[in-house]
Specification:
10 strands, 45% helix, DNA-binding, homodimer, five-stranded antiparallel beta sheet, alpha+beta, 344 residues
Chain lengths: 344, 344
DNA sequence: ATTAGCACTCAGTCAATCCGAGTGCTAATA
DNA sequence: TATTAGCACTCGGATTGACTGAGTGCTAAT
């Protein structure tokens, strides 16, 4: 059996109606569907076929149908192919500029959540490819110096380094000069073993400090250590009865709070199938790499702030989420993030 | 009518039993209570009195009694007076040392939540009284310089300052020297108008930069801007049916996520009555300054890391929380925070 | 190939009923 | 006088059964 034109129409109708109402949809409802003039009986036959093919199912014998994950997947994929509907309104279209990137991202999460009525997350960008802008060592007290590391995009990392013996100001100045002349403008990949050895040599007796600093730089820049995820609107899940169930809600909230789990979704990049377009990725139910999300859908998208600075935004909601709206909203947000970056 | 010995015993028995079971407790249950040898009938009479006095109530006619807020209050107050029971086990007693204070605090929140099975929050310390350790200006690119501000306790703040005209390295060096010689070791209060004027004079044509830096310092150090609250174990509330109700849970989760609300409890210091002891403060139900907490109890405590660095930890759970355990656990945690600070 | 019609299924709702834990009150008791 | 035993009563919660209505599958007619 295959999906002919009419089956597709019926399937789409079922899904759309279900997205709106959240209740199993019956044959009579569909038969009233405008551009389909078929009796409920015919619809029933077709629906029986669709069920056999695995696109829809009955929660219990003789109730209406609801989409299966496969059904949603079909729907979402076909959505991806048609060019996107414009999202008319984004309540507060403005992401205010803030000099801290983290503030912007927090705001973005809030914006997503309040516009969609789902839960939202935004990860800080990975800065793998980023170039070191400069390093500054400063003596803080007798046994510790502070390394401030700035990478392109004005992302700032602080790292305390404890030293055995106190260093005098002059030495620190020299080390600063040394590090900056050699490391400035380099991306992480370019800081290789040869360079490190060279630096250590030049540092003379202070080779241990240099080594600490380089560790610190690597450590500070290493993406997984830096990854932060801002969330917002977790309580939105209570708006959807199918998620508001105690156990489920507890799991979801926990996932949201722990963030370790969210990282998986943010990190994982599935580019294989057609569902990836415009950088938007949709996970339906158990497609998500996180078991707690098995009754949710997750829509993620990758944003890019200049060369190599890639982060992820995501929306988490019930399977019957308004995919069109969500994708539209995310796209709008991406544009804004882009603009913000350009103006900085 | 007044609370005689026996009434106190009965009241305590009712509350303790209710804390364990979470179900209304009847007269027969209490009459079996070991050190009280009274018939259920007598207990009933006493309970009627206690109800009249407002310490307990019946959720519905002819059910057992549960404590009112007033009842809890009595119980908690009397707990405060008796010297604390030792908390025997704290699952993971170790707060690992981390060079970032924020990491320690996050861990602390996690620890509290997992040990008590309630939700926990930990605020970053206010650094009002803290002394400036040093300031470092560095040129980042043509139009911006980075101010790194370190205060005692090794709390680090970064602030980007945009300048109209580019500054040359020499000027920055001079400004650094100027700022550090004059501001080093000062607490925020000591940075007054006179000093600021003096600095501006000395800065010559770069008065605007100095002024920006000082703004930045004030801004960076200002407590309310810096206040962060780490939370953990929000999903624990689902373990208590009286909080797991949808609307309530949604409110609580929201409060937890928004943090604005939590700030109120962290900021507010009620020292008036006897319930404040060891810095521990208990809010029962609507005593808390946050409406969403009306069916919860909140136990907060103030920790101090050296001179003037005060933060708050808090536990949020159902009214029938195990107050003894919570207070004990919090106290243990305080000790640990103390130790961590001393060793740094 | 489509449709009308019919018998059937099943979740959800409502009322009736029962059960048991618990109370308040009264009368008896120490 | 304080305590207790006993009894009638209350009320929430669980159980049951009847009923409804939305929906189905199947068959026979179009």
């Amino acid at each position: 059996m295959e999906l002919d034109e009419r089956k597709i129409k019926i399937l789409t109708a079922v899904i759309k109606t279900y997205l709106e109402t959240g209740e199993p949809v019956g044959s009579r409802t569909i038969s009233k569907y405008t551009d389909l003039s078929l009796s409920s009986a015919t619809i029933r036959n077709e629906m029986a076929d669709l069920e056999e093919m695995g696109y829809i199912l009955q929660p219990h014998t003789s109730s209406g149908r609801i989409p299966t994950d496969k059904g949603y997947r079909f729907y979402v994929d076909s959505l991806m192919e048609t060019k996107e509907r414009e999202i008319e309104d984004m309540k507060e279209v403005v992401l205010e500029k803030a000099d801290q990137l983290s503030e912007v991202l927090k705001q973005a999460a809030k914006l997503l959540a309040s516009n969609t009525n789902y839960a939202a997350m935004v990860s800080t960008p990975e800065i793998h490819r980023n170039k070191l802008k400069f390093i500054q060592l400063s003596k803080v007290d007798e046994s510790s110096i502070l390394a401030v590391i700035v990478v392109e995009g004005n992302i700032i990392k602080n790292k305390m380094i404890h030293t055995e013996a106190p260093l005098d100001d002059d030495t620190i100045l020299k080390l600063n000069l040394l590090l900056n002349t050699h490391l400035n403008g380099l991306s992480l990949e370019k800081i290789n073993l040869g360079l490190i050895t060279l630096l250590k040599e030049k540092a003379g007796i202070h080779t241990d400090v240099v080594s600490s600093v380089i560790d610190a730089v690597a450590d500070a820049i290493r993406a997984d250590e830096n990854l932060e995820i801002y969330t917002s609107g977790a309580n939105n899940i209570f708006k959807y009865p199918e998620l508001a169930d105690n156990e489920m809600a507890s799991d979801i909230i926990n996932t949201f709070e722990e963030k370790k789990q969210l990282e998986k979704m943010v990190t994982e990049r599935l580019m294989e199938d057609g569902s990836e377009k415009n950088g938007i990725q949709v996970y339906i139910g158990s497609e998500a790499p996180v078991p707690a999300m098995k009754d949710c859908s997750v829509v993620t998208a990758t944003y890019e702030l200049g060369e190599g600075m890639r982060g992820t935004v995501g929306i988490i909601g019930p399977k019957r989420m308004d995919y069109e709206k969500v994708m539209g909203t995310i796209k709008k947000l991406m544009d804004q993030l882009d603009m913000i970056y350009r103006n900085t």
